[in-house]
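Subject: Glutathione S-transferase C-terminal domain-containing protein

B.,
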Amino acid sequence: MAQGTYVEDDFQRDTTYIEDRITESGAGDREWPVEAGRYRLVVARACPWANRAIIVRRLLGLEDVLSMGICGPTHDEDSWTFDLDEGEVDPVLRIPRLKDAYLERFPDYSRGITVPAVVEVATGKVVTNDFPQMTLDLSGEWSAHHREGAPDLYPEALRDEMDEVMQRVYTEVNNGVYRCGFAGTQSAYEDAYDRLFAALDWLEERLADRRFLMGETITEADVRLFTTLARFDAVYHGHFKANRSKLAEMPVLWAYARDLFQTPGFGDTTDFAHIKSHYYEVHRDINPTGVVPKGPDASVWGTPHGREALGGRPFGDGTPPGPPPAGERVDPLHNPLLGSDGLVHLT
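Prediction pasted inline below.
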């Protein structure tokens, strides 16, 4: 398997995505109509950007109207692949590589083949891979298909502040760990390192007296931060050299992360084996041997966090989602806190 290269003198993420949207009306030039069963969400559990979409889809209860294809944790320089499925072919799209859906719509597509991506089932064409907008649209445009008790993940009254918080979380934390890990010069690495931990210190302070980023309930902002925190000690601290502190050594963020992990929709979508396999096996210009570490011990995610003392209601006036569908459950061997029902069971 030929691997790509990731290290750059000063890493800059390519943020040119397919900006089509799936909307309630589908009326715009680059808008597609919301329709149950028409689309398939393609993800990889290893990827933090895809993990966002998995969590939001589950919290909103969209499993029956938006099916999900799951790629394996590793990929070559060409494409994510469906190597977890029988015959290494997605059972709905009938393709072995996600790239096939991109090329079906754009025969000369030359950018990265990224997850998450939404594919139209009937045509096999990719619709969008614009992951920040994708999850906001799942909240807003797909509301007619939300489960009863689905939380409001993007409350209108909080959007201005939320957008500012999410932008800082994205640039300084979500993407900040990659700027550390993919930095090809000492100066670029040290600048990224300083920015990352300055942001984590800001989050420690912000979350000291509020249970969630926007206050008393979970929002999209928490989803976006969680997927980086879930990977921090397992990958970013060592593999990406983000090693001033482990997450487990930042008391407020560590308690906050466990609070979310122990909430349905978060820990039960976290696959530690896939996460470690992806980063350590794919990034061979950082980890040439491809050896995957055995640790850290994931069972610590089930320890008490004490965040209930801050009050709040994770789902507001809503309710937690039920167990994930049997075919979408994380392998309990990959997450020691998962039971046969696919939910987190505390130690």
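The first strand starts at residue 21 and ends at 23.

T.
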